[in-house]
Fold:
Amino acid sequence: MAAEPETNGLEQQTVPKVITFLSSLLQRVAEGNDNSREFQSQKVSVFHGLTRPTISIRSYLERIFKYANCSPSCFVVAYVYLDRFAKMQPSLPINSFNVHRLLITSVLVSAKFMDDMYYNNAYYAKVGGISIIEMNLLEMDFLFGLGFQLNVTPATFNTYCSFLQREMCLQHLADPSLNIGRTQLKIHCCFNEDESTHQQQLAV
Structure:
């Protein structure tokens, strides 16, 4: 990984539960696609690494949250984007070889769309442990893969929050000792359009 950016005290932030549940969901999706019989025929893209990164999905997401300083809502929207990407690019399923690059790119795009202030691509490249040239290439490829469909309506946002809440329940069933209780994903958004359909490729 690249040298760590200045933290400005971000190391004191509490990692929101959305990070925990999103990483758990993506871990299960990636492992499922790794074990798929169709894995060998999957297309190799700019997001595909030669080897599996040694850093876990959860640690990578926590790193992004720690240094990118984007809102928790950005991670929900990034989840929506990942799902749309998987739906629109079926030959590029999320797996252990591409999930990290897809994550840093989806959060970058989400932050630019959602937040009034955000870091530039050079900073995100440093956070993600890649070069600025690669970061720019990943962003462009991701946007074209999405067909530049970046708008997320309140209904869609809330639907994906519910998917993450279901992940919370699954974790609690797997480990009742987790102190989850009645935790809710308290994430705010400010969209104003309706959307009758949503993608559910990752909502498994």
